[in-house]
């Protein structure tokens, strides 16, 4: 059996003449957290829907632990929290989770047991008998996550689990994801536009643009590949330092510092220190910028335009 828990081979999804996902291939290793990022309309949700089998690819194939996409066996190991969840109007939280559990193949008793324990785990006890359709956005997202976990899946697909949430709820959801991954060795594919948050949970970044895969790397490899040699410097007179270095480097003013881009970081460091010394300035900060997921994203998309 393959070492990968999800394999997508040349998946294409067309809606009429429009190609939403274009010859997309991907392999996911078990126990890792993958972030899938890309602009609005890039094809993230469509890809997840194809993994779940709720959308059929126009061409290409895929499998989940060797099982065909959309098969009962594949769905048994997958948990899915979609971008938008529609809740049944008249169901309360316990009823909804129980019902979703039975749909996932649990017996009535098992589903009730699991629903009760997830309600405790997700801090929803006070709301257990209230109608989910009346819940706040944050509570609905929690219920959607709980629902994805009802049958103890091995692989979780989370489509923008923190969208429209306040900072506290976002943190709560991310902490939950983090602890689930640690406790259960889950494989997670998570989409989000909040890249500063995403980079705190993912091992691996998958980038998609116009339905095409444009990056599939571990965060560390991607950072290394796109590393540009950017030095962040701050001294007691940034304006003067800027003037002294201007013209020799690609340099920009940032809040409280200046950012200098170079191919030879060590030579630049020496030059900066020398300039600071010669002009009797006081050095406050000098460090190489770590490439954030935000910057990585920007650079990869800019590279696409060229
Ligand atoms: N059922 C559909 N019929 C026609 N076009 C669709 C359908 N579903 C998605 N699309 C189109 O396919 C493209 C990809 O959509 P998708 O929802 O996968 O993007 P996304 O990457 O999830 O975007 P977002 O970040 O906004 O959630 C979009 O242009 C969208 O309008
Ligand atoms: Mg989407």
Mean pLDDT: 92
* Total domain modules: 2
Uncertain spans: none
Could you please say which CATH topology of the largest domain applies here? Rossmann fold
Strand content: 25-35%
What does this protein look like?
There is one protein chain. With 306 residues, the protein is an alpha/beta fold. It folds into 2 domains: 6-87 and 135-224, P-loop containing nucleotide triphosphate hydrolases (Rossmann fold, 3-Layer(aba) Sandwich); 228-290, Alpha-Beta Plaits (2-Layer Sandwich). 38% of the residues lie in helices and 27% in strands. The protein contains 11 helices and 14 strands. The protein has helices at 44-52, 72-77, 93-103, 108-121, 137-148, 167-184, 195-198, 219-226, 238-245, 265-278, 293-305; strands at 6-15, 18-28, 33-37, 59-64, 67-68, 78-81, 155-159, 187-191, 204-209, 212-218, 230-235, 250-254, 257-261, 283-288. The longest helix is centred in the middle third of the chain and has 18 residues, at 167-184. Magnesium ion binds next to helix 1.
């Amino acid at each position: 059996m393959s070492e990968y828990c999800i394999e997508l081979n040349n998946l294409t999804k067309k809606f009429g003449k429009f190609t939403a996902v274009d010859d997309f291939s991907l392999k996911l290793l078990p126990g890792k957290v993958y972030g899938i990022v890309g602009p609005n309309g890039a094809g993230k949700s469509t890809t997840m829907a194809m993994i779940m089998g709720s959308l059929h690819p126009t061409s290409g194939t895929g499998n989940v632990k060797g099982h065909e996409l959309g098969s009962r066996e594949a769905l048994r190991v997958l948990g899915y929290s979609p971008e938008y969840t529609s809740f049944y109007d008249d169901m309360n939280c316990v009823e909804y989770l129980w019902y979703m559990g039975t749909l996932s193949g649990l017996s009535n008793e098992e589903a009730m047991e699991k629903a009760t324990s997830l309600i405790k785990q997700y801090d929803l006890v006070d709301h257990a008998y209230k109608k989910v359709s009346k819940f706040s956005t944050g509570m609905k997202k929690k219920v959607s996550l709980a629902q994805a976990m009802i049958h103890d899946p091995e692989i979780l697909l989370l489509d923008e689990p923190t969208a429209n949430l306040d900072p506290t709820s976002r943190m709560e959801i991310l902490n939950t994801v983090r602890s689930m991954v640690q406790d259960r060795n889950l494989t997670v594919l998570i989409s989000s536009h909040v890249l500063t948050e995403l980079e705190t949970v993912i091992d691996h970044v998958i980038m998609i643009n116009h339905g095409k895969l444009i990056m599939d790397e571990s965060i560390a490899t991607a950072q290394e590949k796109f590393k540009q040699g950017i030095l962040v410097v701050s001294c007691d007179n940034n304006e003067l330092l800027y003037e002294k270095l201007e013209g020799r480097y690609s340099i920009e003013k940032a809040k409280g510092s200046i950012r200098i881009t170079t191919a030879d970081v060590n030579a630049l460091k020496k030059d900066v220190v020398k300039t600071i010394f010669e002009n009797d300035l006081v050095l406050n900060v000098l460090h190489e910028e770590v490439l954030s997921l935000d910057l990585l994203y920007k650079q990869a998309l800019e590279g696409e335009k060229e």
